[in-house]
Write a structure and sequence with these properties.
- By secondary structure, the chain is α+β, with helices and mostly antiparallel strands.
- 23% of the residues lie in helices and 36% in strands.
- The protein contains four helices and six strands, in the order ααββαββββα.
- The chain has helices at residues 8-22, 26-30, 57-61, 137-145; strands at residues 33-42, 48-52, 75-83, 86-93, 102-111, 114-124.
- A six-stranded mixed β-sheet has the order 2-1-6-5-4-3, with helices on one face.
- A hairpin with a 2-residue loop joins strand 3 (75-83) and strand 4.
- The longest helix is centred in the first third of the chain and has 15 residues, at 8-22.
């Protein structure tokens, strides 16, 4: 169900971005991005890189091997905040059952023809903290058994 206070075009833009991006449709994705769009990518090993529209997105998507199926388009919107013609969306994303989840923070901008992605960041999903204060369930279970 849509939040009535949030422009439904925001959720439509997000859905289109994940449908097109999951199929590696670079040309389709270009229709959803503003010309000065850039995304900050934070990797699990601690490295960081900026990916600009046209600059690095094609290189990231070229890692897909020909003939491989598209990745899962599944995502979950955790929160959307809209202030006039600017919006931010916090999402949970997993491309397959085997893949580690990521946190996506999308920045969107409304222009005369609709909502477009203006930037954002992608980061590994944080490991859950347990009641033992350790990161990860296995660490807590081992501590309790000893």
């Amino acid at each position: 169900m849509r939040n009535q206070c949030i422009d439904p075009g925001i959720e439509d833009c997000i859905a289109a971005a994940f449908d097109l991006g999951s199929a590696y449709d670079i040309e389709g994705m270009d229709t959803l991005n503003v010309p000065d769009q850039a995304v900050l990518v934070l990797y699990g090993d601690g490295s960081v890189s900026w990916v600009s529209r046209g600059g690095g997105a094609g290189a990231l998507w070229s890692e897909r091997q020909p003939g491989n199926p598209p990745v899962s388009p599944q995502y979950r919107v955790l929160k959307i905040e809209q202030q006039g013609t600017e919006a931010r969306a916090l999402l949970y994303r997993r491309t397959s059952a085997e893949a580690n989840p990521v946190r996506c923070d999308l920045h969107l901008r409304k222009q005369s023809s609709g909502w477009f992605i203006s930037g954002g960041s992608v980061a590994p999903w944080p490991a859950p903290r347990t009641r033992c204060g350790q990161i990860g369930v296995m660490a807590c279970e081992r501590k309790m058994k000893s």
